[in-house]
Amino acid sequence: MSTPQQLHELLSGGSELNIVCHNNPDPDCLASALALGRIAEAAGVEESHILYDGDISHQQNRAFVNLLGIELEQFDPATVTDRPPGSLLAFVDHSVPGANNKVPKGTPIDIVIDHHPSNGVDARFVDHRDHVGAAATILTEYIQDLDIELDEALATALLFAIRRETLNFLRGVTSDEYEAAAYLQKSVDNELLHQLSAPSFTGETLDAIATAIGNRRVKQSVLISHVGRTTERDSLPQAADYLATLEGVETAIIFGIIHDAIHLSARSPDPRIHAGNVLRKAFGDVGSAGGHHDVAGGEIPLGIFADYKSDDEQLLRILEEVITTRLYAELNINNDSKK
């Protein structure tokens, strides 16, 4: 029995499927969830729900949800802790309870489909391929192998997700992505694909990127900066993408305060540096962090500083010193000088 058929058989035994996205889901996660829901429907599952926590703040992510009409529900812990018989729980584009999601640690998971590096993935059904460029690539393979009807919306969602996750086939791409794209292309709505690729962005996002540009420190080809306090979570990866292109910069790491946590985003085309390992080793003891060799992220609770809002400038100076010191130590960069 093939892997897609094994998934189909597991789904056919359920009456309900709850697909939990990671916090602040992106197109790869959302398109994968949409595809898994279609597979579940074909397997006879009566109800499928796509659940998420956090915010959908990136302008492309908001456009993705709105233009494709994806029905999302706010995650409620009771959904996974008080499951009736026949209710299945799935993760797409992430794999571990409590890591970039609000599912309690130790919760039994039925289905995991992911492409991010991870240790200890545990579920009744696991397809964990950290060598492929996108989770949507794996779900496209399932759609094709199980002969699921591929309408324009689903095809467009999956192709856009693959393009976005691989930076238009420039990052982490494999032959699997090209094969998936060739299969999807014939059913894509090209006008919708263009709309998804060129959404407008908010003034706050622009301000956050400008703040990161002004606060940048560069040392030995490593750039570290912050966007201050913002509600636009996805301004961090956008700032990291932009600043990683600065001449002389091989690694860009951006942080910012969002609500009661510090968020980090890293970009590193430098083959000598594994961005995911750097963030995990630097901040794994105080939060959750990790990712690929060239793209990574993390989240650290503010803790005792959560209510410290009267003087953001002083708080950011403290955080900048602590975060920079930890990163320099992990990257073996001398921190005698701040310039």
From TrEMBL:
Residue ranges occupied by any DDH domain in the UniProt entry: 19-162
Span of domain DHHA1: 220-322
What protein am I looking at? Answer: Bifunctional oligoribonuclease/PAP phosphatase NrnA
Write down the SUPFAM superfamilies for this protein, in alphabetical order: DHH phosphoesterases
One of the entry's Gene Ontology molecular-function terms is: nucleic acid binding
